[in-house]
Amino acid sequence: MLIIQKYGGTSVGTPERIQNVARRVLATQAQGHQLVVVVSAMSGETNRLVDLAHQISSDPIGREYDQLVSTGEQVTIALLALAIQSQGGQACSFAGHQVHIRTDNAYSKARIKSIDGSVIQKELQQGRVVVIAGFQGMDPEGNITTLGRGGSDTTGVAVAAALKADACEIYTDVDGVYTTDPRICPEARRIPKVSYEAMLELASLGAKVLQIRSVEMAAKYKVPLWVKSSFNEGEGTLVTSEEKDMEKVAVAGVAFDKNEAKVAIRHLADKPGIASQIFNTIAEANINVDMIVQNVSAEGFTDLTFTIPKSDLKKALKAVEQQAQKLGADKVEADEHIAKVSIVGVGMKSHAGVAARMFSTLAERKINIQMISTSEIRVSVIVAEQDMEPAVKALHAAFELEKD
Ligand code: ADP
Ligand code: ASP
Ligand code: MG
């Protein structure tokens, strides 16, 4: 079989752990498999590089930012190849561009366009383990690009899709995808099998165990995706196409996200064209809006509230405050101390009353819901930041997610 293994930052966080990865890789190869290994930077390293950039520049973006933050992965590929060699194996390390991982030129959030597998295949045929830097690629002009935080997952899946690998295994510090983040809720339970659809929602709503794009790509190319621990031999979680037995449970998991901020524009005229002007301004500033709530109007005026990434708040306020003034609004308010809590499950399609149960669970704990949004397979609410953990725990218990 051809297997792609991706090891995250914690799994390659120290020289001992890199030796541990090398041992696992060689054990897999010894079972007769061909192996491509994608690695992240050592844990904390990408944050360190981002921090350095901010010490030098107030708004570090673009080519040089990607050039900088991509370097962490270059260290780990070489160290892992050396570790494999030191244990008697054969390995060769490659930066993204050396195995032709081609992307568009959207720095810091580049999308992989193609991977030419010929270099990798040649190495595999020589019996070598191929070690590839995650998170990075090259744009059409030859500049180094990066794929967004957590992007090594996407490199792993993209390589698996390009080589039509038999399996893609994401090794991390938890032994699978859980009903919620086990760091927040110790009762969280490993989900043995989850659909691409539910996993995509969980990832989009804040479960960072897999990068969103890696799940999108796995679904598109039908890559069988495993999430496993690099520290034990557990079974892990299989992310795969929806199957009959997955539909039984209404709620598969609880996700949360502290990275959004809320903006409210008070006392806006309630007439055609106002929302369009506000949100066009935000779109022009290249800011993604998530939830939007417009109150029922009273005497021709209304309030408009929406959420955006916290990191874009300053930029958003600058754009919106001018616009709101022009439109005669009373004021613009911002709140950074909010969190989004979501319940997710493909089974919701056929179960009634799931949202009602969520709201009554939060009401019992006296947790105030500030905003609500729903889709076929999820319900999300915005709550105060300090209510996030109690909300996650209460919902986990209310939907009996600790039970098999
Ligand atoms: P890596 O460095 O290996 O890519 P990440 O830190 O990106 O690892 O992702 C693993 C982390 O994701 C876990 O340590 C866990 O705290 C967090 N996490 C959030 N939600 C979930 C979930 N539903 N199941 C498992 N882990 C989760
Ligand atoms: N090293 C990058 C990050 O910290 C990519 C990854 O770990 O997947 O975001
Ligand atoms: Mg990750």
CATH class of the largest domain reads Alpha Beta
Number of helices: 12
Helical amount:
25-40%
Oligomer: single chain
- Using the 3D structure, state the CATH architecture of the largest domain: 3-Layer(aba) Sandwich
Overall 3D shape: globular
Describe this structure in words.
- The protein has 2 domains: 172 residues, Carbamate kinase; 162 residues, 2-Layer Sandwich (VC0802-like).
- Helices cover 34% and strands 25% of the residues.
- The chain has 12 helices and 20 strands.
- An 8-stranded mixed beta sheet has the order 3-6-2-1-9-11-12-10, sandwiched between helices. A 4-stranded antiparallel beta sheet has the order 13-18-20-19, with helices on both faces.
- The radius of gyration is 23 Å and the shape is globular.
- Bound molecules: adenosine-5'-diphosphate, aspartic acid and magnesium ion.
- Aspartic acid binds next to helix 6.
- Magnesium ion binds next to loops.
Write the layout of secondary structure elements.
Elements: E1 2-7, H1 15-30, E2 34-39, H2 45-56, H3 63-69, H4 71-86, E3 91-94, E4 101-103, E5 112-115, H5 118-125, E6 129-133, E7 136-138, E8 144-146, H6 152-163, E9 167-172, E10 193-195, H7 196-204, H8 212-220, E11 225-229, E12 237-240, E13 253-257, E14 260-269, H9 274-284, E15 292-294, E16 301-309, H10 313-326, E17 331-335, E18 338-344, H11 354-364, E19 371-375, E20 378-384, H12 388-398
